Amino acid sequence: MTKILTAGDHFVLNSLLQEALVRHAPTAVEVSELTLPWPVEPFHPVGEVDEASGTEDELIEALQGVQVCLTQMAPLTERVLHECPDLRLFAITRGGPVNANIPAATQHGVAVTSAPGRNATATAEHTVALLLAAVRQVPQRNSELLAGEWRSDYYRYQDVGPEIRGATVGLVGYGAIGSRVAGILNGFGARILVFDPFLQPGALPESAHQAGSLEELLAAADIVTLHARLTAATTGLIGARELAAMRPGSILINAARGALVDYDALCDALEAGHLFAAGLDVYPAEPLPAASRLRTIRSVVMTPHLAGASKPTAHKAADIGASEVGRFLRGEALQHCSNPRRLPPGCPSPPPARHALDPNR
User: Fold this and answer.
1) Is 193 helix (H, G, I), strand (E, B) or coil?
2) Which residues are catalytic?
3) Which of 47, 48, 199, 246 has the most other CB atoms within 10 Å of its CB?
4) CA 68: distance to chain centroid?
5) Strand pairing partners for 225?
């Protein structure tokens, strides 16, 4: 009988993982569980992997004699792989396998899968929430009212922002998240402009238009929202030059990855009044440092990397991960296998590399 460890946490619960396994596992399995402390305790590097929860020691103990691990945050390190020789599948229920050492897993014959798109709807909705909050400065006005202030002077022309209807919203990236944001904003009556150099012909609806370059999009957009995957090519995608190319009084939204933006340059642009506002959910260093300049700028709306936080995201994550376990147990090709060329049995040839602006992560 195949032994499976569900290493859930306080978001993707063990109960959700095990319910999903009941739906997808084709045969009887023996299931044990380990509860990791995320997000009550922030994720952190473990061994050589990033954004993990728990310790190598507790995972090694829980994986003895186990062939399959279904988890969101457990650390798959070289040490874990060395100490757990029975492991054959490590199914990660997040958008990308950042908490797994893929080369080491491949060397040890362990397939690693992920769950791309699990939080696409939640992140798209949160992006629009940040956009609306930044345009109307809702958190700032709420804080002032709670403090006893009534600031009707914000009706001054220079202090008000645009409306969404009729505004040009520039989407940098048009994958699972960007396309959903476009659909929502189309309902507001926004003009949608997209920059994505890997966009397939005919992929855009008639309500959206394609920009020929990032510079073209930045110059035309009243609001710019980022939906790019973080790679070497996209790190620092929006720097001082790009911010200067944006329209005076425009707004930047980033719920993708913090390192896409030069935040010092963004602070400069906001303090100088070149940009009207920004809405941010991600940062180069997380948690946001106490001394960050962003904390001092009143036109910034911020949330602590919560864009994907929804109950449906947790359910989708468990379901996608458990479906991969089911495929593995049936000997079928895995849909979201992350291993490169040297693959263990049951893992298909790797898919084509996702392009730099794919937001699935």
Assistant:
1) strand
2) 257, 286, 305
3) 246
4) 25
5) 171, 253
